[in-house]
Amino acid sequence: MAGSQDRARVRELLDSVRAAGRHALTAPEGKIVADAYGIAVPGEELARDIDEAVAYADRLGGPVVLKIVSPDVSHKTEAGGVVVGVEGASEVRAAFRRIVGNVRAYAPDARIDGVQVQELVPPGQEVIIGAVTDPTFGKVVAFGLGGVLVEVLGDITFRLAPVTADEARSMLDSIGAAEVLRGVRGAPAVDRWALAEQIQRVSRLVADFPEIAEVDLNPVIATPEGAVAADIRILLATRTAAPRRAYAREEILASMRRLMEPCSIAVIGASDEPGKIGNSVMRNLVDGGFAGEIHPVNPRAGEILGRKAYRSVVDVPGEVDVAVFAIPAASVAPALEEVGRKGVPNAVLIPSGFAETGQQALQDELVAIAERYGVRLLGPNIYGYYSTWQNLCATFCTPYDVKGGVALTSQSGGIGMAILGFARSTRTGVSAIVGLGNKSDVDEDDLLTWFAEDPHTQCVAMHLEDLKDGRAFVEAARATVPRKPVVVLKAGRTSAGARAAGSHTGALAGDDAVYDDILRQAGVIRAPGLNEMLEYARALPVLPTPKGDNVVVITGAGGSGVLLSDAIVDNGLSLMEIPPDLDAAFRAFIPPFGAAGNPVDITGGEPPSTYEATIRLGMADPRVHALVLGYWHTIVTPPMVFAELTARVVREFRDRGVVKPVVASLAGDTEVEEACAYLFGHGVVAYPYTTEKPVAALGAKYRWARAAGLLT
Amino acid sequence: MAGSQDRARVRELLDSVRAAGRHALTAPEGKIVADAYGIAVPGEELARDIDEAVAYADRLGGPVVLKIVSPDVSHKTEAGGVVVGVEGASEVRAAFRRIVGNVRAYAPDARIDGVQVQELVPPGQEVIIGAVTDPTFGKVVAFGLGGVLVEVLGDITFRLAPVTADEARSMLDSIGAAEVLRGVRGAPAVDRWALAEQIQRVSRLVADFPEIAEVDLNPVIATPEGAVAADIRILLATRTAAPRRAYAREEILASMRRLMEPCSIAVIGASDEPGKIGNSVMRNLVDGGFAGEIHPVNPRAGEILGRKAYRSVVDVPGEVDVAVFAIPAASVAPALEEVGRKGVPNAVLIPSGFAETGQQALQDELVAIAERYGVRLLGPNIYGYYSTWQNLCATFCTPYDVKGGVALTSQSGGIGMAILGFARSTRTGVSAIVGLGNKSDVDEDDLLTWFAEDPHTQCVAMHLEDLKDGRAFVEAARATVPRKPVVVLKAGRTSAGARAAGSHTGALAGDDAVYDDILRQAGVIRAPGLNEMLEYARALPVLPTPKGDNVVVITGAGGSGVLLSDAIVDNGLSLMEIPPDLDAAFRAFIPPFGAAGNPVDITGGEPPSTYEATIRLGMADPRVHALVLGYWHTIVTPPMVFAELTARVVREFRDRGVVKPVVASLAGDTEVEEACAYLFGHGVVAYPYTTEKPVAALGAKYRWARAAGLLT
């Protein structure tokens, strides 16, 4: 994009600006940067005096804009330093005098380098292209319409910089007022290619020069013929963040494998005394059925739960994969030293009393020890973790043994307990539950790197309040999403919520608009709330991946059909336009007053055979890609009869290799609850008393399938 | 607003337009209407020739706008019939010629009455004020910003016409870009009073003249000094809807009282044969414990369930309040005749096979019979109804006996079954469940009129797909809302959903944007989905009404605190700014590393005494108006311990007359489910595994309290 000579020119310029102790580039400096990166700006010259201004205006031809050039005036319009649409020598002279006079009055001590004489940009659609440095994600590029839309409605979209051409084009469609760019009320469409090109160039600029904190092209005038930035504003950072220690992918996988599939575990602070955390952890490891070695470590040695205890972890025979800490905060550091000396790759730090209680120094000490020995730290301030396929419950909470496809993580212990209770109540099949707590070291991207590889994990669901390194997370998510869905509940979405996050973890919560766009860019499914995260986690591994967009609703209750249709539109899904032959096929099974079309309304009071025949049609027709069923409880077709026939038909087709997602909403008396549990256990995502939840689960699966590139 | 002379002038004008067979008023005609209603429009004259145009332009002074006047050209700009900003005799002459030439070319056969010479409106904020005739609500007035905002983003708001001054002002705040009217980027605020005045005048105009189908003031130019409509467009209706038969309030109450509190019920088609609907209805009436008289009616007479059966309802001794029909559709009409002759005021029509299956004529016949005898019809095509405080289950579904404060209605039988199952599963206290089905007669406004008076009903929740008479519903809702909350689930919200509604009931689904605004205007709480409607119905009667806006979160899990804060903002609630003395009082009970402020984070692992002390503080302080609790399951404070202490404290304060809404989110293992059920039973709205639901319920209560005028 910019050649090495161009980059060298910008490097030299930025260095000189910083050497001069300035953070804001002047307009002529901005023009140099823009030219180096091919960012289209109007032709312009810097006039030192009135006569130069007249000469330049004459050379540019047509009306011009005059703008003050001063390192001390950054808001030129406020200072009266801009005059637009000046033409001819006498007008240029008058405007030059007026500008200089205004600025002298506004800021008497400002150094005035001259007046910029600039081509007048043609009328067109005003847009904003910019870049900022986000505390979580680093350089991000922004795009929005100019004027009130951006400011009042916050109609702006963000992407990680640099962006590809496709990503840049996607930004044009991501704003609420996207249609305006395509031309409304007979206005012509703007040049989308040119706009995307400008976005890409700005994103490349900030990626190449980390010291650029902010770029504003505002406004950019977009016309059918191109896009020209009427003004460019570039700010340099006053300081840059310290780089975070990074692990190579192979290092992460090696330690994570030993954490999640350990052969030998030491419990630091194991205890025989009921009520102690070190006792709960021991009991859960033993009762959970972990088949590897479990070594209690306790200064009093002896035996604990019938196992030989060691005074120190260094005395434990053989290699140890995981040391679980169940001792008070103050004792952790010396014990961690021993864990390091023993060469244990993973320390699971259950104790609290570190950064979350203001003891940042104590936590920093642990990190320093861990880095010295190459020990990875999970926590501190966590409930521990579960790896169900290993029968591993390294936690003081109760064991959990329903093996399945979803890995769940939580930053908060309370949310971890909600995960456990929900999973147990719904018998959600789980591959892992991991507490992350203070995230002194291991965080979401480490776990995601592992879960992407873990064959037991088919879906990952994460509760988080902040990301230590947004870019590392996006990288891990992008590597995972093509293989399995990643659901994220980002807490602290709203400003009040973000404030609470601040007081809870001391972490600076990112701007939610940036989080939202970047998580979507990474292909992550964002859950709107805790219950949705849990329901998606339960449903996504159960649902097969759809092969196309055609959703068909088959319902016994017309009323459910209407609500299911509402939910389908709300979730961005498409009600299939039923082809005439399929419509006729449905009609053959339903009463004459039933409504074919979509929803297929089989009407209430129909026998099991009508449900079965129509579900078979939907399963068999290759043009149908997903089924949404609406069941109405009647004596003719009781809930369990419906559940069993639906499960049987779905399995029969699956056995023949025909796999489609099927979800169901059951309206009826309390027997529908048992029927839903049965259906869920047989591969059909079903809920009682709601038309929204089954469709939301299907919608989440579709969002993932699109992000994974499995649907076009 | 408009005097009788003004109205007479408009009446005369509209009559003459209709007499001429026209539906669109010309600009000069629009000006006459505007002047009569005090709608500010620019000064203008109709020039018949060039010389008149020059003279008028001179008289108006300053630049003017010239516009073609032709009954045959409604899109003047497209026809080249408008020139803006003409000043001086020669410009006016040239513009006049150009316009007439353009229009001749555009529509050679158009009659040209002349050219309108109009004052040029000053620059300002463009807005749109209009009025349309909605199929459900009749005349509604609309307001939005001009330009792309209205068209692309649909940023427009509606109210029933006519509006009060307060309602008109509320419209200015109801659009997404409301801030623009207050002035952004240093622009001055517009004259809100003048804008509201224009809205009110337009709304009055359409209310006074039902034949006006549409009014468009587009654009209205709003400045700090006023608001002037640059263009006014008025269209007349081609046909008007037939008026619907209306019952007086006292008539409605009299028949509803006998329906919901009957002394004597006849079952038409009662049967001894299990599996028949007439048997199920009889059994449910008897088994449900209804204390009044139950009279089986069956042509074979004899005894049914041990009660004497009659050949005809006319043979039943004494007065009958309700006749429940459990016979095939074809037999209903003659039986209804007999019901009419007996003087029974209410017929409950369970059978299907009427309008919903295309048998509109059969249904119309019933309505005609009913009107002749003054019988009110519930249904047809319904499951029946429950009136729990009467132990009355007049339905073929299973009985329901948990007495309580919510009355639920549903248009669809499937949704009715979901209501029953949900209520039974959650032990929701119910006053009534009513199926409305085809709504051939009794509809939501009749029921609402009764429920408003019914002392057992504290909250009304209604599922509906359409409203037969939107204005009657709004009137009933407005009368009810000051006394009790009204929750509405409007199905067919989205365009796909609305299409399904059309095929289900044959009713024209209204535009959802209009529904949304008007339901809000009526003070109704709109539930976003079925599950929300059910949860609000369960929670609202349990929650006391808040006395102010200050919400305090007390949480044992910081993670829940963040999510609860998110939910509070999402639901339009306010996290209280905790005063220093209260903050200090909280701090006295929580660990030094806990976060006071709001949320009050008492930290995990605290004993019951910490929960109790902090909840007591929140209950006792009169500046706190509502509590949101976040519980974290630990061994130190198990779920039922938390539930019992919370219920005890809340009751203790209630006994002392201190009543505040308290909601709770319980994060923990499955024991939290029992704890939530206990709390719900003791006046605390509590949910497991979700931070969203308890706050959504509190948010619904607040929305009602505001609509009812109980909060300022």
From TrEMBL, chains A, B:
Residue ranges of every copy of the ATP-grasp domain listed in the record: 31-67
One Pfam family here: ATP-grasp_5
InterPro entries per record: ATP-grasp (IPR011761), ATP_grasp_subdomain_1 (IPR013815), CoA-bd (IPR003781), Ligase_CoA_dom (IPR043938), NAD(P)-bd_dom_sf (IPR036291), Succ_CoA_lig_flav_dom (IPR032875), Succinyl-CoA_synth-like (IPR016102)
PROSITE patterns given in the database record: ATP_GRASP
GO MF term (any one): ligase activity
SUPFAM superfamilies: Glutathione synthetase ATP-binding domain-like, NAD(P)-binding Rossmann-fold domains, Succinyl-CoA synthetase domains
Domain of life: Bacteria
UniProt KW keywords: ATP-binding, Ligase, Nucleotide-binding
Protein's UniProt name: Acetate--CoA ligase family protein
